[in-house]
Q: What sequence folds into this?
């Protein structure tokens, strides 16, 4: 149960960091464009997008945190290692490899959002690779 609660806490922290990163990245990329606040009800503007990101972000990152908490529980019971003050270096390395594999296509394709993607990926690695094991321990 501790693993699941730590995963939820890491997920909620990741959600908060994700919302901040997305909002800063989106508004920075749209600073030279003109968009209407509500000229058309069907048109998506940055405010509507941020509301959707905020509503979806907390449940999504919470679920990801629960899944990673369960995976950490499995890896902690199967491969108990203590190295460099991390409860399980194999889990942290797996998070880093997973993050690198997942963000590589986005960094190549989305050149305007590279900085935001990199900040989000570092937050992901810190939240789940370091904070999750620390909260459990």
A:
């Amino acid at each position: 149960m501790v693993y699941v609660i730590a995963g939820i806490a890491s997920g909620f922290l990741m959600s908060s960091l994700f919302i901040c990163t997305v909002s800063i990245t989106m508004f920075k990329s749209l600073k030279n464009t003109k968009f209407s606040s509500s000229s058309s009800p069907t048109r998506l503007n940055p405010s509507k997008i941020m509301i959707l990101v905020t509503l979806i972000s907390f449940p999504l990152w919470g679920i990801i945190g629960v899944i990673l908490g369960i995976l950490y529980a499995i890896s902690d019971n199967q491969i108990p290692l203590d190295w460099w003050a991390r409860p399980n270096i194999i889990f942290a390395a797996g998070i880093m490899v997973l993050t690198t594999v997942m963000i590589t296509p986005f960094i190549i394709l989305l050149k305007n959002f590279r900085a935001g993607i990199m900040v989000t990926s570092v937050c992901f690695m810190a939240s789940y690779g370091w904070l999750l094991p620390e909260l459990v321990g």
Remarks:
- The chain has a mean pLDDT of 84.
- The first helix runs from residue 2 to 29.
